[in-house]
């Protein structure tokens, strides 16, 4: 394994130096095969990790099952207190976690730090929400009976998470699962498994009982497939590609699921919009995390009267970015995370240009920056709705600009998609923008803000009938999804004077 030179600036914090699976409260590293965690900014190796088997995944499920009954019986406020302790532990370790995240995923250190801080907040938020989770006492037709409706944990959860937000997204499942009395088997994306080890170590050392969270490293097609189909798994949480989500839905059929999948969010710009505001929003949505966000600006749909002006303003912002080593001060964009997403970005841009689109900025890889995964922030004008870059999820720093005639055409093209995660509308006429929003099909519609506008307590998920997923994650919505309502009937006490 070609690891980066010891004692270099890439030295890992202590929480990531010992790697392995975490099962039943114990760290282990006994797999016969391994894979390498790599730094996408340099191509160098960071650590050797176990390539786990189906048998290992099954042992993790068994450990989670064994722990779940006692964890569910743990008083709710004790579980909440643990979530608070975990949140504080993440906050204490934020610098180390952010460094590991930046090294392995490729996002800038500032973006990584913000992600870690948001994760700490998520654990503390889950604690507060579960403390005050309501139940009901109901009456009915049945004489002398009352009905108590309470939420109970579902059991063992299979959680599979992506590489683009490898700390925050796991936290969106782990925190509510722990708070509500579920146990978890977690399979992270292979390309960001090292930071998963570090996060698990921080969580475990905050006082987590054995078996409540179990970490299994390896290929999703092996260990992920094993846990979602396992007979002792009662629920599934997955964030990732639509293709993988569809496979999980089939393998886990019949189990409660939270599936947050892909997007190709349009940013709609009417002719009366503030173009500077719209350009800035498009750039934020497309270039943050190098465009590797499910809610990214997938395409800009602009009224033909202002489309060219808008595209030029976005291009100016693109040219002002400073791609480079994500740990270096002044860097505004890191590399793409892996070769597959780099190849898709290349294909989408080249296909668009070959079919008549014009490249106003970027459109090239930047290998001189340290690896083949750096891609310049890119703006394409003259894009048509039938091009792949306008129809598919690129997941790279690319802004396709489409010129369309009037509001009806803007709405038609916006809705002409398989996806329905997030959308945005820009207009100085708020009443008109709100009216248009009622004709859009998406889980989140932002008026005069970028497509990635979201906070962790808000519901996030795809619109019905789209390929952006099922269910809602965020705040109480995840709490509710990870629990089920049980009704207990009791005699109704009668008082006679």
Q: What do you see in this structure?
A:
The chain is an alpha/beta fold. The protein folds into two domains: 261 residues, 3-Layer(aba) Sandwich (Aldehyde Dehydrogenase, Chain A, domain 1), CATH 3.40.605; 200 residues, Aldehyde Dehydrogenase, Chain A, domain 2. It has 15 helices and 20 strands. The protein has a seven-stranded mixed sheet, with helices on both faces. A six-stranded mixed sheet has the order 9-8-7-10-11-19, sandwiched between helices. The termini are far apart. About 1% of the residues have low confidence.
What's a quick, concise take on this entry?
The protein has helices at 54-73, 76-92, 94-105, 109-131, 168-180, 193-205, 220-229, 242-251, 275-287, 307-320, 339-354, 388-391, 406-415, 430-437, 476-481; strands at residues 21-23, 26-28, 34-38, 45-50, 136-139, 145-153, 156-160, 183-187, 213-215, 235-239, 257-260, 265-269, 297-303, 358-361, 378-381, 398-404, 422-426, 444-447, 469-470, 483-491.
List key phrases describing it.
seven-stranded mixed beta sheet; 20 strands; alpha/beta; 20% strand; Aldehyde Dehydrogenase, Chain A, domain 2; Aldehyde Dehydrogenase, Chain A, domain 1; 497 residues; globular
Task: Provide the helix percentage.
Answer: 25-40%
Report the CATH C-level class of the largest domain: Alpha Beta
CATH topology of the largest domain: Aldehyde Dehydrogenase, Chain A, domain 1
- Mean pLDDT over the full residue set: 95
For the largest sheet, list the strands in their spatial order. 14-15-16-13-12-17-18
What is the CA-based Rg, rounded? Answer: 24 Å
What would you call the shape? globular
Q: State which percent range the strand residues make up.
A: 15-25%
Instruction: Tell me the CATH architecture of the largest domain.
Output: 3-Layer(aba) Sandwich
Number of domains: 2
Structural class: alpha/beta
The CATH superfamily of the largest domain is known as Aldehyde Dehydrogenase, Chain A, domain 1
Poorly predicted runs are 4-9
| Main sheet characteristics | 7 strands, mixed
What's the total number of strands?
Answer: 20
Count every helix, treating DSSP H or I runs of 4 or more residues as helices: 15
Alpha-carbon distance between the termini? 83 Å
């Amino acid at each position: 394994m070609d690891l980066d030179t010891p004692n270099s600036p890439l030295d890992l914090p202590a929480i990531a130096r010992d790697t392995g699976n975490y099962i039943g409260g114990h760290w282990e590293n006994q797999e016969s095969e391994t894979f390498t965690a790599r730094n996408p900014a340099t191509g160098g190796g960071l650590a050797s990790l176990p390539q786990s088997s189906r048998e290992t995944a099954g042992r993790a499920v068994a450990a989670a099952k064994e722990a779940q009954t006692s964890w569910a019986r743990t008083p709710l406020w004790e579980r909440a207190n643990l979530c608070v302790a975990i949140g504080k532990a993440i906050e204490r370790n934020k610098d180390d976690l952010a460094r590991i995240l930046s090294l392995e995923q490729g996002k800038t250190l500032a973006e990584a730090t913000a992600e870690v801080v948001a994760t700490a907040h998520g654990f503390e938020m889950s604690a507060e929400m579960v403390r005050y989770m309501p139940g009901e006492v109901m009456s009915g037709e049945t004489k002398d009976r009352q009905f108590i409706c309470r939420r109970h944990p579902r059991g063992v959860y299979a959680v599979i998470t992506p590489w683009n937000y490898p700390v925050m997204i796991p936290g969106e499942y782990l925190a509510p699962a722990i708070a509500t009395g579920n146990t978890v088997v977690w399979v992270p994306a292979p390309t960001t498994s090292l930071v998963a080890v570090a996060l698990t170590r921080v969580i475990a050392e905050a006082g987590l009982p054995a078996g409540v969270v179990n970490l299994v490293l390896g290929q999703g097609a092996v260990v992920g497939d094993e846990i979602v189909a396992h007979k002792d798994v009662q629920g599934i949480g997955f964030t990732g590609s639509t293709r993988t989500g569809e496979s999980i839905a089939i393998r886990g059929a019949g189990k409660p699921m939270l599936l947050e999948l892909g997007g190709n969010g349009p940013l709609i710009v009417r002719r009366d919009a503030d173009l500077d505001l719209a350009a800035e929003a498009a750039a934020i949505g497309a270039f943050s995390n190098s465009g590797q966000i499910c809610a990214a600006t997938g395409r800009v749909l602009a009224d033909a009267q202002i489309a060219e002006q808008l595209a030029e303003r976005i291009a100016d912002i693109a040219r002002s970015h400073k791609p480079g080593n994500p740990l270096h001060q002044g860097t505004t964009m890191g590399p793409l995370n892996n070769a597959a997403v780099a190849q898709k970005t290349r294909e989408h841009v080249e296909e668009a240009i070959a079919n008549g689109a014009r490249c106003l900025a970027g459109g090239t890889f930047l290998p001189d920056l340290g690896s083949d995964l750096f891609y310049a922030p890119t703006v394409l004008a003259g894009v048509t709705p039938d091009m792949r870059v306008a129809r598919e999820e690129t997941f790279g720093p690319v802004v396709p600009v489409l010129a369309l005639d009037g509001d009806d055409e803007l709405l038609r093209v916006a809705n002409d998609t398989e996806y329905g995660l997030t959308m945005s509308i820009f207009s100085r006429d708020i009443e008109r923008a709100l009216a248009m929003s009622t004709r859009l099909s998406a889980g989140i519609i932002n008026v005069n803000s970028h497509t990635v506008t979201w906070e962790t307590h808000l519901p996030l998920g795809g619109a019905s009938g789209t390929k952006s997923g099922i269910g809602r994650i965020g705040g109480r919505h995840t709490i509710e999804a990870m629990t089920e309502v049980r009704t207990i009937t009791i005699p109704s006490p009668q008082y006679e004077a």
